[in-house]
Amino acid sequence: MSELTKALPSISSLTTVSDPLQALEDDAKRDDITSQFRMGLRFDSNFGSPTADDKLAFEWYLKAAENGHAEAQSNLAVMYENGRGIPESVAKAIHWYNLAADKGEIQAQFNLASLYEKGRGLAAPNYTKAKAYYEKAAKAGHTKAKVRLGVMLEQEIGVKKDEHLAIKRLTEAAEEGDIQAQDSLGRIYVDKKDYTKAMEWSLKAASQHNLLGEQSTAISQSQFRLGTLYYLGSGIKQDFFQAFEWYQKAAKLELADAQYMLGYMYEKGRGIEKNEADALAWKNRAKDNHHQLRYGLLWILKQVSTASVT
How many angstroms separate the CA atoms of 93 and 61, rounded? Predict the structure, then answer.
């Protein structure tokens, strides 16, 4: 889901008149576009306002948007994209995102790029436009735009591979604390056999505690990667105890590869006392989660060492 561009201004900021909300509405009705935009914010359910009414929010955003207010155009596009206050229309969302993005509205640039990358409302994805708008937003400092641009360039998603620029953008985002960027860098540096940097970025991601969606996946993948580096002694002294600890963390986040490795280590008595019951339990849990396999045990093992795990 796309993001809105502004938070609702506090009521306290409008208390210089006896009835600030009425004054705001009066100004909006006199075609003051900033007041029209703020009226949209006032009724927008995305901000948890007690006066939330998405239909009214849409009407006020539309007035401000038609008068050229870039943030209103962007928020109007979000409402069209998600069908809030108006029937869903991705085509109209793209129209309003374009207007806002061309005025330099950063969130609109990112949201528009996302639609182009996914191909929503289009006959097919338009990776050229997605890359262009991600670049605009990334240069303006949008962290998630840096991540998506980096991933597209590194994985050749509809664009020519540019590993140098990919690493640059991902590093910028990772330094800003983005978990997915940190995990991506860990994976990239494993592939490049630069295990020092692989450990550094994987540890940053693995040590975070955001357990929502893709971020949780990035955390568990980094934890698994650390476990594998310790298990194989790649770029670091081999340490089965540390490997077990990191695999256990990832396993608790339901990463199937880590669950398999826990079972294997219980079976072999590596980093933990042998326990056939626990070995079987973790291997069965991994089997149940087979559909969640993403980067794969064998893939990572192949990158870090010629050693095999059976």
Answer: 13
What are the pLDDT tens digits along the chain (310 aa)? 555 554 333 333 344 445 778 898 989 899 899 999 999 999 999 887 788 999 999 999 999 999 999 999 999 999 999 999 999 999 999 999 999 999 999 999 999 999 999 999 899 999 999 999 999 999 999 999 999 999 999 999 999 999 999 999 999 999 999 999 999 999 999 999 999 999 999 999 999 887 777 889 999 999 999 999 999 998 899 999 999 999 999 999 999 989 999 999 999 999 999 999 999 999 999 988 874 444 455 555 554 444 444 4
**Nearest-5° Cα angle at 84, 80 to 85:** 100
Give the span between the Cα atoms of 170 and 98, in whole angstroms. Answer: 25
| Burial category of 105 from C-beta neighbours within 10 Å (exposed 0-12, middle 13-18, buried 19 and up) | buried
Q: What's the pTM value of the predicted model, to 2 decimals? A: 0.84
Give the C-alpha separation, 253 to 48, whole Å: 31
Residue 144 token pair: 């998630």
178 within 8 A of 214, measured Cβ to Cβ: no
How far is it between the farthest Cα atoms of the chain?
77
Whole-angstrom distance, CA of residue 266 vs CA of residue 244: 9
Could you give the CA distance from residue 78 to residue 1 in angstroms, rounded to a whole number?
8
